[in-house]
Design a protein that fits this description.
Oligomer: single chain
Number of domains: 1
Number of helices: 2
Helix content: 10-25%
Low-confidence stretches: 9-23
Radius of gyration: 14 Å
Amino acid sequence: MKKIIAASLLALSFSSSAFAAGTVLATNTPSKEGAQIFGGTTADEAARADINPLVKLSTGVIGVVNFAAEASNANQSISYAVFAKHTKGSKIFGTSNDSTNVYWKAETPGALTNANLPSETTNAGFGTGWTSY
């Protein structure tokens, strides 16, 4: 799970790159199980899964990315928080670009929904109910 989150963070850190995920990545929207993200310097390159794979969630794993539409000022990067959960698992894992911690929260097995996730794009969302390590 840590590898998935780390890879997601790596993928999102390339602000000048293009990404494709089969569907448009929307903030606070759960992915499909086993979703993949491809990258490149253009939209055409990003769509080529055969040469530019960046992240592939395992079977049964759903991810969510909350991101700001733009940086709050010219000296900052776009803020984001990344979450992942296995449909048979009992924990949601998450982290954000302004934190070195990985957070987890207990939840009943099943699909990951955004109903139990903070909408913040920073570590401020990891409050009550979240444990860090």
